[in-house]
Amino acid sequence: MNVSDTSEIRLKNASSKIIEPGIIYNEFKEGVDLQVDDLIGVKKANLELANGRPYTVLLSFGYLTNTTSELREMAASKEFVMDTLAIGLLAPSTGQRLMGNFNLNFNKPKINTRLFTSEDKAREWLRNILAEKNAMSLWK
Question: N or C, which end of the chain is more exposed by having fewer CB within 10 Å?
């Protein structure tokens, strides 16, 4: 992990950064084949950035990024939830929406997850989750 400052961590195939209190933006690079190790690295980065506080994730995959079935199973597991309250998955293209919906229905993630075509709507939903869980005060 390369910690560039206290609000962003850059990894080999992804980056994690705090974009506003309680919302961590995970961006996976374009055209990579993501493995379980990539997911574990992002989770560790998120936990480091959150510093023991509950958080939400705004998640974006680069164009032509692939994931393994093992990675999808791990991401959907109860053990993977930890301090994550919700995930807003950005899916601006038709192909991303189709794959995202298929994976959500097939893997049934234990973390509250929704697909969005708009970053603004995703952030609004994540803010509402933080407010519902009374987590915002922990980020001040």
Answer: C
Q: Is 139 left (phi over 0), alpha (psi -120 to 50) or beta?
A: alpha
Distance CA 55, CA 31 (A): 27
Round to whole Å and give the CA distance between 101 and 106.
8
* Of 69, 56, 61, 63, the residue nearest 103 (C-alpha): 69
| 121 Cβ contact partners less than 8 Å away, ≥ 6 residues apart | none
- Counting Cβ atoms within 10 Å, is residue 4 exposed (0-12), middle (13-18) or buried (19+)? exposed
pTM above 0.85? yes
Mean pLDDT by 10 residues, the chain (140 residues): 64 96 95 93 97 96 84 91 95 74 78 94 97 93
pLDDT for res 5:
43
The residues that bridge with 28 in the sheet, in sequence order, are 14, 61
pLDDT over 90 percentage in the chain: 70
